[in-house]
Amino acid sequence: MQYDYDLIVIGAGSGGVRSARIAASYGKKVAIFESSEVGGTCVIRGCVPKKLLVYASNFVKTFKSAKAFGWDVNQPQFHWDRLISNKNAEIERLNKIYLNLLKNSGVELIPHHASFVNKNTVVANGISYSAERILIATGSTPFFPEITGIEHAISSNEALSLQQLPKEITIMGAGYIAVEFACIFNALDSKVNLVYRGDKILRGFDEDIRHFAEEMFIKSGINIITNSNIIEIQKHDNQFDLLLDSDICLKNQDVVLCAAGRVANTQNLGLENVSIKLKYNGQIEVDSEQNCGVDSIFAVGDVCNIHNLTPVAIKEGHLLMDRLYGGGNTYPEYDYLPTTVFSQPEIATCGYTEGQAQEHFGELEIYKSRFRAMKYAMTDIEDQTFMKLIVQKETDLVLGCHIAGTDAGEIIQGFAVAIKQGITKKKLNQCIGIHPTSAEELVTMR
């Protein structure tokens, strides 16, 4: 049978773009469909613009520290509108880079929403397109719970482009996105309330990290309200009153940010026409080959995996194309994934939490260190760093590394390579540290 393309990709985010480019590099005719900007959540409305706001908020401590290091800094003035304008310009630049990547790879971009007609055909803007294989890479979207007045809340998408810096903001949730935005707005002098239904923030992280992070966030001025759900949002004029099921009422909020999780982008894809199964959480069900149960349809990234991280989507897509078109036989490995929460302090982790390790590896040896980084030794900033290593006693293997502190994300990347390769605590001890750095603590803990 003759098809219009060898491969159709639905979604031009990080995973979709990488997949399309790799397939095209193998000489395949590829089309990619995207109704929004090319680059997806990470580049356009996620990791990248959010990190730019994180950098902006970090300058507060830099200015505060400057005097101790001999600098006279006049009262600095912050301009939110300038930050957002410059951020928008940078995202536009990156969008153009992604467009050029597709063009230079020979991938045809069709700027419309695509949905399935059958297992080899999609329709977009009233036109049908066929392909031997179709890849779904539509990512995820913010989740909004069913709460009275939830239409008044914004998501992280809109938080990146607010016209004004809010004087007071309430954030629903306590995961990556929630705590990152809480720290951004708090550092920029907004009053921040973080409301979470559980008893402790950052569910899924190591318990010591969760405790330390909560302590640091509260110390920095964030009002953390746990064991509470927002049950109603009332609008009056341009502000909002929030009623919590814990009988707390937060009045006169300028912004309500819902960061209660994300759901797979599977709506309006015509999946009912191709008998693709969805998991309990709405994600597409795939096997180890990224196949959706239909021989011609595959999926990568947030739309199907449990590790909603951009590098995971890229790796899945790249390796899938290698297997389909390049004779490859390599598969993604999901153990010992490093990840970072770009909060203040930054939180980075790789491997097992202490609780997880106890379940799977028997007796453990736990190493912890808490200290004030040299960077702040001469200043009034009281930020601390916390580090933790989890070691299996029988084998001496390092099972987990958890860091909360300045540059934690940069530190964890290198140690993640070592942990992935099976480093032991003895080998870490034999490594000579770089002094003076915070990272050297990981090779000197006894």
Largest sheet: 7 strands, mixed
Number of strands: 21
Mean pLDDT: 97
Please tell me how large the radius of gyration is. 24 Å
Category by helix and strand content: alpha/beta
CATH class of the largest domain: Alpha Beta
Per CATH, the superfamily of the largest domain is: FAD/NAD(P)-binding domain
Q: Helicity level, as a percent range?
A: 25-40%
Stretches with pLDDT under 50, minimum 5 residues? none
Return the domain count. Answer: 3
- Strand % is 15-25%
Task: Fill in the CATH topology of the largest domain.
Answer: FAD/NAD(P)-binding domain
How does CATH name the architecture of the largest domain? 3-Layer(bba) Sandwich
What is the terminal-to-terminal distance? Answer: 66 Å
Per DSSP, the total helix count is 11
Give the overall shape, derived from the CA principal axes: globular
Keywords:
single chain; 446 residues; alpha/beta; FAD/NAD(P)-binding domain; Enolase-like, domain 1; seven-stranded mixed sheet; five-stranded antiparallel sheet; 21 strands
Brief summary:
The protein is α/β, with parallel strands linked by helices. It contains eleven helices and 21 strands.
Mind explaining what this structure looks like?
With 446 residues, the chain is α/β, with parallel strands linked by helices. It has three domains: 5-141 and 263-325, FAD/NAD(P)-binding domain; 150-260, FAD/NAD(P)-binding domain (3-Layer(bba) Sandwich), CATH 3.50.50; 339-443, 2-Layer Sandwich (Enolase-like, domain 1), CATH 3.30.390. The protein has helices at residues 14-25, 40-45, 47-66, 80-105, 156-159, 176-187, 207-220, 310-325, 354-361, 408-420, 425-430; strands at residues 5-10, 30-33, 108-110, 115-118, 121-124, 127-136, 140-142, 168-172, 191-195, 223-225, 230-236, 239-244, 249-253, 255-258, 262-264, 297-299, 339-341, 347-351, 364-371, 385-392, 398-404. Strands 1, 2, 3, 4, 5, 6 and 16 form a seven-stranded mixed beta sheet that branches. It is globular and about 70 Å long. The mean pLDDT is 97.
